[in-house]
Specification:
α3 crosses α4 (about 105-110). The strands form two sheets. The chain has a five-stranded parallel β-sheet, with helices on both faces. It has a three-stranded antiparallel β-sheet with strand order 2-1-4, with helices on one face. The chain is of the alpha/beta class. It has helices at about 40-50, 70, 90-100, 105-110, 130-135, 160-175, and strands spanning about 1-10, 15-25, 30-35, 55-60, 75, 145-150, 175-180, 190-195. The chain contains six helices and eight strands. Helix content is about 30%, strand content about 25%.
Length: about 210
């Protein structure tokens, strides 16, 4: 399986965030996307997820039979996207039912991130780091080979970052693909890098996706 991107451009609210972005990513490879705030890192992930249409360019998925790129993507955004009044386990069950192609049970997925003891607690009661680990556990309730991660280490302490790095390396060893937007190192030896930059100077602003 390969993802090929050629000359991608993104426009949000009438403003051109980036243009001319291209990369080739094969099974077992990771792409680390860097750039200043507002440069369009999150928007690039949204394009890959099918949540945003590129203003220009070509995006192709090769070797996935009849599946489209959004159908093989499992995304964890900068915002966790969890339902506060549902328990951690219920949130993962909901994600599994929406995404399809079930893999681990919600409880087993929580165990992967060392938060199985929080399974029956409403997410509203969890700390920022605990919520982040619950969100990352969504990666394991469904069998989708492409992980899109927006600031995946946000709110994680050092041991949790090390655990996540090990899980990402395991996914790559199993022929998965990872695209991660981040300001911090991810301890992924051999990862490709892509710097997203605006075509002209722009003020610092928060990501929109």
């Amino acid at each position: 399986m390969h993802i090929l991107a050629e000359n991608l451009a993104c426009r949000r609210s009438g403003r051109l965030l980036f243009s001319g972005v291209g990369f080739a990513l094969a099974a077992g490879q990771a792409l680390v996307v860097t750039g200043r705030n507002g440069a369009g890192k999150s928007s690039l992930l949204a394009i890959l997820a099918g949540a945003l249409k590129p203003a220009a360019g070509i995006l192709r998925l090769v070797g996935a039979d009849e599946r489209t790129l959004p159908e093989v993507v499992n995304a964890v955004g900068h915002r966790e996207g969890l339902k506060a009044m549902l328990t951690a386990e219920e949130n993962l069950a909901f994600a599994r039912d929406v995404l399809g192609r079930p893999a681990l049970t919600p409880r087993a997925a929580l165990e992967k991130l060392d938060v199985a003891h929080l399974a029956r607690l409403p997410v509203a009661y969890l700390s920022a780091g605990q919520r982040r680990r619950v969100a990352l556990a969504r990666l394991f309730v469904t069998s989708r080979p492409v992980w899109l991660l927006d600031e995946p280490t946000s709110a994680l302490d050092a041991p949790s970052q090390a655990l996540l790095a090990a899980l990402m390396r395991e996914h790559l060893a199993n022929r998965g693909l990872i695209v991660a937007a981040t300001h911090l190192p991810l301890a992924l030896d051999g990862a490709l890098t892509l710097t997203v930059a605006p075509p002209e100077p722009m003020e610092e602003q928060g990501e929109m996706w």
